[in-house]
Amino acid sequence: MTGFDRHLQTFGALILAALWVLPLAYAIWTAIHPAAYEAHFVLNAPLTTDNFVKAWNAAPFARYFLNTFVLVTAILAAQFILCTLAAYAFARYRFPGRGFLFFLVLLQLLVMPDILIVENYRMIHSLGLVDTITAIGLPYAASGFGIFLIRQTFLTIPTELDDAARIEGAGPLTILWRVYVPLARPTYLAYGLVSVSHHWNNFLWPLIVTNSVETRPVTVGLSIFSTIDAGVEWSVINAATLMTSGPLLIGFLLFQRQFVQSFMRAGIK
Amino acid sequence: MSRRHWIQAWLLLLPAMVFLIAFTHVPAVTTIWNSFFSTPRGRRPSVFVGLDNYERLVADPVFWKVLGNNLWFALGTIPISILLAIVMALFVNRQFRARGLVRMAYFTPTVLPLIAVANIWLFFYTPGFGLIDQILGWLGFGQTNLLGSPDTALPALMAVTIWKEAGFFMIFYLAALQSIPPSLTEAARIEGAGSWRIFWQITFPLMMPTTLFVSVNAVINSFRMVDHIFILTGGGPDNASSLLLYYIYETSFRYWDTSYGATLTVVMIALLCLIAIGQVFFLDRKVHYK
User: Name one GO biological process term (chain B) (predicted).
Assistant: First the structure.
């Protein structure tokens, strides 16, 4: 590649990057400046945290955050446990029905609970769980994707390790916990990041099954806050928007490499 | 040994399978079942109506409209997202000083909630004082109403989707690029091939499995991603920007016509299965999963 080519590519990369951060940068600009500077870009515009304070006080965001936090943690814990057990069975056991059951697992990669909102609502309703955090999480407690991903990792672990542990007198659950789980740590990290960001961002299903402040996650809270728009200023809505994405965004900036590698690992397997 | 072995395996699978079957397979089957019944209303219970819901579906102009929208949405977002993803991956696959920052800029939209993304973009699109109108105003053009006119509402949603997805697809291409042995491109260069030719004759064909994988994911996503519609257009004007899943939501949870909602969901499941069959035929021949 010639030097000119190289510079041209770098230039192109920078232009595209600038274009790509523009929407977010603009949101940040309006959120940290008084409303008068919404479309008035001067370097000496005064900074303010008023918009965040106003947004925080205008809606029960503290509660929304708590709900999301509980939801995301519970889903992650359930997925780790259920998917690990199932993945171990698929990776290390031969039993009747294995192929069919694995097919059922893979089917969930395609027909996800996300699109089965009508019947899942009926199910949640008949369980009497409408408007609970449990209801938001239940359909995602077992994940076909998680089982598949963890199984793929377990398959790469040499069976000699099992045999060695078995000679020592370890049962299957001990082997799973002591040998398999520690060796699959990078996969758990990858899957964890993907799962947390997916459920932090999830909107449609929580919108359907929740209808009170005590259960709503931040995404639903934000949508209500920004569509009521009884004269709420743009800058305040933007502050709320940034606030709700804030924890993920900060986590991403701090662990950028892990995030990118996790999404890559989760996608390619 | 073997009987105990089987029981162990089934016990390990039991908890996960209960949840999977209860919230994916059972609802998928009852969706089909319920599409043959009427929606219970007040005192009138649900009754078997045969294919009535499907007859209604075929005659429903809104259904055809949203199905067409979904098709345009997929055609409008997927090729552009993939093209941009490849360009981005090529950009950040070389060493240069701001590389980390640039990669971060491309990828950041991926971690934002779609609801938040929609809020951010609303500022661009709002008639009068949105950023697009402000810029057009300075240039001497009149007001626009991108989200409010039937011709531009769907493209406006597409732009948001492309912005959100391109960086996500980029990382798969980045992985693909890094797995191509440098000796191949070096050999081509020694033979006198230019960058353009190397890309089309070596890099792009070698990334074909990635392209197919990303395409399938993108198609599935185009059926699933509807959150931004809630904020930006509400499906309007006159369903110009409504997609299938959004229509299912409206039918089932705004008008509480759950049987018709189930019928629409059957179409969704059928489409996804078609994609899966297509994937088996086209993708699995070229990609070997380990």
Answer: transmembrane transport
Q: Give the model confidence (pLDDT) of A203-242 as tens digits.
A: 999 999 999 989 999 999 988 887 765 566 778 888 888 9
What's the pTM? 0.90
* DSSP letter for each residue of A52-118: HHHHHHHTTHHHHHHHHHHHHHHHHHHHHHHHHHHHHHHHH---TTHHHHHHHHHHHHHS-GGG-HH
The per-residue b/e assignment along B153-177, b for 16 or more CB within 10 angstroms, e otherwise, is bbebbbbbbbbbbbbbbbbbbbbbb
Domain boundaries, given as residue ranges, for chain B: 61-282
User: Which residues from A are below 8 Å from B223, CB to CB?
Assistant: 115
Burial (CB count <10 Å: 0-12, 13-18, 19+), residue A215:
buried
CATH of domain B61-282: 1.10.3720.10
Looking at residue A177, the DSSP 8-state letter turns out to be I
CATH of domain A60-268: 1.10.3720.10
pLDDT at residue A46 in the model: 79
- Token pair for residue B213? 């994988």
Closest CA–CA distance from residue A86 to any residue of chain B (Å): 5
Instruction: List the domain boundaries for chain A.
Output: 3-48, 60-268
Q: Bridge-partner residues for B41, per DSSP?
A: B44
Neighbours of B250 (CB within 10 A): 20
Q: A159 CB near a chain B CB, below 8 Å?
A: no
**CA-to-CA distance for B103 and B171, rounded, in angstroms?**
9
- Quick check: B259 pLDDT over 80? yes
- First-to-last CA distance in chain B? 29
Q: Average pLDDT of B91-106?
A: 87
Q: Which residues of B touch A256 (CB under 8 A)?
A: 100, 104, 107
Interface test with A, best of B115, B164, B213, B232 (most A CBs within 10 A): B115
Degrees (nearest 5) of the Cα angle B11, A114, A257? 85
Q: Phi and psi dihedrals of B41, rounded to 5?
A: -130, 120
pLDDT 10s digits, B190-223: 888 888 888 888 888 888 888 888 888 888 889 9
Rounded CA separation B199/B207 (Å) = 10
Burial of A71 (0-12, 13-18, 19+ CB in 10 A): buried
Q: Could you tell me which residues are beta bridge partners of residue B44?
A: B41
